[in-house]
Amino acid sequence: MSNGQQPRSEAIASAAPVASKIPLLGGAGAGVVLAAGLAFFFWPASEGRVVFDLEPDHAEVTLLEKDGPRVLTPGATAVTAVLEAGSHRAEVTAEGYVPAAIDFEIVGGELHHVAVTLEVAVEAVEFAIEPPSAVLEITPASGGDPQVLPLEDGRWRGDLALGDYVAHVTAQGHHEETIPFAVLAGKPTLLPVSLRAVARSRRGTVIVPTPGYRGPGYYGPRYYGPGYRGRRFP
After folding, report:
1. Which of these, 80, 84, 90, 79, lies nearest to 107 by C-alpha position?
2. What are φ and ψ of residue 14, in 5° steps?
3. Cα Dmax for the chain
4. Among 183, 144, 186, which residue's Cα sits nearest to residue 161?
5. Among 199, 58, 190, CA closest to 118
6. How many Cβ atoms from other residues are within 10 Å of residue 29's Cβ?
7. 13 phi and psi, to 5 degrees?
8. DSSP strand E in the chain: where?
9. Which residues contact 40 (CB under 8 A, 6 or more apart)?
10. Which stretches in the chain have pLDDT values below 70?
11. Which of 181, 204, 206, 232 is the most buried (most CB within 10 A)?
12. What's the CA dihedral at 81, 82, 84, 87 to 10 degrees?
């Protein structure tokens, strides 16, 4: 053509190779996304995923592997890991709880849930209180409702969860006592408490002995009760 324009048939022919590449590129991108998605939901036959359902939920999981222990980092909602198929062993720990060792099996390409509930750690505690009629209450130092421990002949024996407490002991006619104490693992605790009696006197009357004087004219202790006007009474 004289005006220098490319013939329509040639333009279409030159654009065809470019257009043919577009589906290929799109297919390759979709393939990458699909592969990533499959890799996220499926694992090789030699591996499997495990999810630990823990109580308490802040417990720590340590895998006991051949090359040494490995602490698992908790995720947003749970502690999970991808492990080789076969037998595994882990230790679950939490402060204030009894550690637990667990064995579990992983099957390649499968998802496993392992539930672990730890027992609260306790230790023996004994109170020995005078007078035996006292009332004993304990409260966790971190806060909470007081708990009355029933005394038998002024004594209470039992197990308490590890931690810090405050004991409050009261008895009629005695000064009350507030005693902080700690329950530690492997250390039984004995707490003797002796309340001080409140001093008593006859209302309105105070007897004051005359110190050191027993000579003539001694009439015994002075009386300072009602009606006293400076006189001595025998």
Report:
1. 84
2. -75, -30
3. 160
4. 183
5. 58
6. 10
7. -65, -40
8. 47-55, 60-65, 68-71, 79-84, 86-93, 100-106, 111-117, 122-130, 135-140, 147-149, 155-161, 163-170, 177-183, 189-194, 207-208, 222-223
9. none
10. 1-44, 201-234
11. 181
12. 30
CB proximity list for 104: less than 8 A, separation 6 or greater: 50, 87, 88, 89, 90, 112, 114
User: Phi first, then psi: what are they for 189, rounded to 5°?
Assistant: -115, 130
Q: What is the dihedral of CA 114, 119, 120, 123, to 10 degrees?
A: -150
Residue that is written with structure tokens 């749970």 in the block: 78
Contact 164, 180 (CB under 8 A): yes
pLDDT for 226: 53
DSSP at 19: H
φ, ψ for residue 39 (rounded to 5)? Answer: -65, -30
Entry field: residues in the chain: 234
In angstroms, the Cα distances linking 32 to 22, 28, 39 are 16, 6, 10
**C-alpha pair distances (Å), 174 with each of 194, 195, 201, 204:** 10, 6, 15, 21
Residue listed under structure tokens 């333009």: 11
* Beta bridge mates, 105: 87
Is the full-model pTM beyond 0.70? no
The pLDDT, as a whole number, for residue 45 is 72
Backbone phi, then psi, for 202, in 5-degree steps?
Answer: -65, 130
Nearest C-alpha neighbor of 138 from the set 177, 175, 107, 92: 177
- Which one-letter amino acid corresponds to residue 103? D
